[in-house]
Design brief:
Layout (H helix, E strand, L loop, with lengths): L17 E3 L12 H8 L9 E2 L3 E7 L16 H7 L21 E6 L4 E6 L13 H12 L18 H5 L9 E2 L8 E5 L22 H4 L4 H4 L3 H4 L8 E7 L3 E6 L12 E7 L4 H6 L5 E4 L4 H4 L5 E6 L3 E7 L2 E4 L4 E4 L8 H9 L3 H9 L3 E3 L23 H10 L4 E2 L2 E2 L8 E5 L7 H14 L3 E4 L7 H9 L7 E8 L6 H4 L13 H10 L7 H18 L2 E3 L1 E3 L1 E6 L2 E2 L17 E3 L1
Parallel strand pairs: 3-10, 19-20, 19-21
Antiparallel strand pairs: 1-21, 2-26, 4-5, 5-7, 6-7, 8-9, 9-10, 11-24, 12-24, 13-21, 13-22, 14-15, 16-23, 17-18, 25-26
Length: 588
């Protein structure tokens, strides 16, 4: 996972190439002042000479306490990733196109003919307790992710391409046969054997191998079943990044101090403190200069722009919000999604009509001042070669929505329509709590759907807190027919870890032969030819657009307010992602 958010280190969620995010924080709609403002903003604060010392306070915008699962193989929350960022460092640096380089904590060598990748941790890369990061620490992360007792959601069909990992996951083997440690557990070299080599393997965030290590010497005595809840994960985790955790106020704040063993050298700051803040309080916190770094809630941009004492920097993050339809369940024993052909939402015309009834452009302009914009496909346009620009997406068209429902047999009986079989139709929508306008946005869409005769009600009668929301979605709660979610995406655009049969993150639970075929083609040996891969990406986007099991809704500019005395802060600079916090300091 490689998403940049100002001061946050990248790479801390790189297992399944995704993190769950809240909705409502953030086309191109250049007519809108917010969009024009964002395009004018710099992507980094002014570069100046740095002095050592000082404390930085960071606001983590969330309306719920953080879970505090501080291990990359166990965490799925973007909030936890942010909070880990001063200490969690990926094994690999990248260039600005996210291609893996040898500049980071470990070197990388791919041998296509031997079907191997060799990773060698550099000497001097140490955990915050002073122990060298070893080959076993790299291998142990695979055990954490693939062991069913750990509760990790990051085991995927992509990782099952590692020789022997599927057998380990199934409990048929106590070791992973395809991971060799030539110099032993305490050596620094790891050779990973694959069943097939994939074209995305040169890119960070590809999902076919892990990009982090876990401290085996520290965690080995904790049973996998107790790992996620253990104090060694929740209270005193080890990392090999520039800072180490010194204090956690559970659910509320984390404090970091320098890791004296950091391999690149001594970081500049004395202390970094992240504190949870409601998104609704962001504007006031900015105006009162309560934090040194704080994200701007897009709907509050007009209130804060021009505030003295801050540099505002902006970028388009690799993320999107979406509407998904539940059409099945996840079989945890088999590790696959199973579709229900009789599911309420397993009707293509119904799903498409719901998409066309959403006035996304109007909502974006009204509630975010043009800082968010409607998305047309499930591949962001930042991946220019793979983006299907011919797709128009689900624009607002009530006439088309009504015709789709009429032709599909959803007849009106009074205000609302009934199912083709004549039974009443009530659709239960799950949506997260968020910014102050979140309720209004969701109610707007419910009213739009009412205009085409669809009776949509909120699951549980209200918006759902972030952690509870994803708990229900992941467990396929029968009270959810459709839901608004959000992804923080990988820098390798393969959609397999989100939408394949084996992907736990395929929350819609749709499985079709055509989808499987296209996903396999995108990552096939033939796809080492980029033009072939681009063609298959575009075919997949067209297929997903037509099927509408998941409808992309919005992305938006991410704007951050940074204390004007700070330097070394970037909104978007992938090649410096691993060094994000290492570079930050106060200007002389």
């Amino acid at each position: 996972m490689k998403v940049y958010k100002t001061l946050s280190t990248i790479g801390v969620v790189s297992a399944a190439a995704v993190a769950l995010v809240a909705c409502g924080k953030s086309g191109d709609n250049s007519k809108d002042s917010g969009s024009k403002d964002a395009k004018k903003l710099a992507t980094a604060v002014p570069k100046k000479a740095i002095k050592d010392g000082g404390t930085v306070t960071v606001a983590e915008l969330t309306d719920t306490p953080f879970t505090g699962i501080f291990n990359e193989g166990l965490s799925t929350s973007a909030t936890d990733s942010d909070l880990m960022s001063p200490g969690a460092e990926s094994l690999f640096d990248t260039d600005d196109n996210y291609k893996i380089t040898d500049n980071g904590p470990a070197t990388f060598k791919l041998d296509k003919s031997a079907k191997t990748i060799t990773i060698e941790v550099k000497k001097g890369v140490k955990w915050s307790d002073g122990k060298q990061v070893t080959a076993k620490d790299v291998e142990y992360s695979y055990e954490i992710v693939a062991n069913k007792d750990s509760g990790s959601q990051r085991y995927t069909g992509s990782l099952a391409n590692v020789v022997g990992l599927a057998e380990y996951h199934a409990g048929k083997s106590k070791t992973i046969s395809g991971i060799d440690l030539p110099d032993g557990d305490n050596g620094r070299k790891v050779v990973i054997h694959f069943k097939q080599m994939k074209p995305g393997m040169y890119q960070s965030g590809n999902g076919y191998f892990l990009e982090f290590a876990s401290p085996y010497h520290y965690l080995k005595d904790v049973a996998f079943s107790k790992l996620m809840s253990s104090d060694k994960i929740r209270k005193s985790p080890l990392f090999f990044g520039p800072y180490k955790l010194s204090k956690i106020v559970r659910g509320q704040s984390v404090t970091w101090v320098p890791n004296k063993y950091y391999w690149r050298g001594k970081p500049h700051l004395d202390k970094i403190t992240y504190s949870v803040l409601s998104p609704n309080s962001s504007a006031q916190a900015i105006k009162s200069h309560k934090f040194d770094e704080i994200s701007v809630v897009n709907s509050q941009w007009k209130q804060v722009k021009g505030t003295k004492g801050y540099n505002f920097i902006a970028a388009k993050p690799l993320s999107y919000s979406y509407l998904a339809f539940k059409v099945g369940k996840y079989d945890t024993k088999k590790g696959v999604s199973v579709m229900d052909k009789n599911a309420k939402m397993n009707n293509q015309a119904l799903r498409q009509a719901i998409g066309y009834a959403m006035n996304i452009d109007e909502v974006s302009q009204h509630y975010t001042q043009g800082l968010s914009f409607r998305l047309k496909t499930l591949i962001p346009d930042r991946f220019k070669n793979f983006y299907n620009s011919k797709i128009k997406g689900y624009y607002y068209d009530l006439k088309k929505a009504n015709k789709l429902l009429d032709d599909a047999g959803y007849k009106k009986k009074g205000t609302y329509r009934v199912q083709p079989n004549g039974k009443p139709l009530t659709i239960h929508l799950a949506a997260m709590t968020g910014t102050s306008n979140q309720e209004a946005i969701i109610q707007n869409y419910i009213q739009q759907w009412k205009k085409i005769g669809l009776h949509v009600v909120l699951t549980g009668g209200r918006l759902i807190e972030f952690n509870s929301f994803y708990d229900k979605v992941e467990k396929d709660d029968p009270s959810i027919d459709m839901f608004f979610g959000g992804w923080s995406l990988s820098s390798e655009p393969s959609p397999k870890d989100l939408y394949s049969k084996e992907a736990p993150f395929n929350f819609s639970r749709f499985v079709t032969a055509e989808n499987t075929k296209l996903l396999n083609e995108i990552d096939s040996d033939k796809a080492f030819n980029e033009s072939y891969r681009a063609e298959k990406f575009k075919e997949w986007q067209q297929y997903m657009y037509e099927q509408a099991y998941v409808i992309p809704t919005t992305n938006g500019y991410s704007i951050d307010a940074v204390n004007s005395k700070l330097t070394g802060v970037y909104a978007s600079k992938p090649s410096l992602g691993n060094q994000a916090w290492y570079l930050v300091g106060y200007a002389k």
